[in-house]
Amino acid sequence: MMDFLEKWNIKMNDQKLLEKAFTHSSYSNEFHCDNYERLEFLGDAVLELVTSDYFYRETSFKEGEMSKIRASFVCEKALATYARNLKMDSYIKVGHGQEKNINDTIIADVFEAVIGAIYLDQGFQVVKEYIDNIIIPYIKSNTNFLGDYKSALQEMVQTNKKSLEYILTKESGPAHDKKFEVEVKIDGMIYGVGIGKSKKEAEQNAALDAIKKSAR
Description:
Blueprint: H1 3-6, H2 15-21, H3 25-31, H4 37-58, H5 63-74, H6 76-85, H7 104-122, H8 124-140, H9 149-158, E1 164-172, E2 179-186, E3 189-196, H10 199-214
Antiparallel strand pairs: 1-2, 2-3
Helix pairs in contact: 2-7, 4-5, 4-7, 4-8, 5-9, 6-7, 7-8, 9-10
């Protein structure tokens, strides 16, 4: 059994489904077998439902905000990260011409294809628990897959056309060891506070603080 399934005690009835989930089109073209593309399509839909359900139940975000934050945890970079941490990339089968180019796109596709395979073989509840076990820790740790925290907060705020500003409230310490404190305000209300050794770092920490509070 593959380690990433054994970890959650998932025992596939149809191992061929799992083999298909790791088979890239370049391999199937060479060896005349099925590839993961149809499973990826299904897995993408299941992943969207499970993550949407989580953000609906666990946050008070409006529709646009939920779409933005969900996108950050199901983007290509995020899915490839989950897959690599589970060592899924070591099971991928590609054709000879593709062997040196198993990129994030392929790895992310395989992650979704595996979800599709588990869903077909084990049903919705098992695949939901599998997805939750993998992704929720990243959500709770506020992992940012789309770039810096200021950009992520800006994306969230833009959905509601609110004003966003960073205000330096405190600067202390000698020249070689400065400390800056920044507040981030949304429509005039303080949403986060950050401290850093530079104004830029303090702004990033304030944005992260605001994102954390918004997700509660």
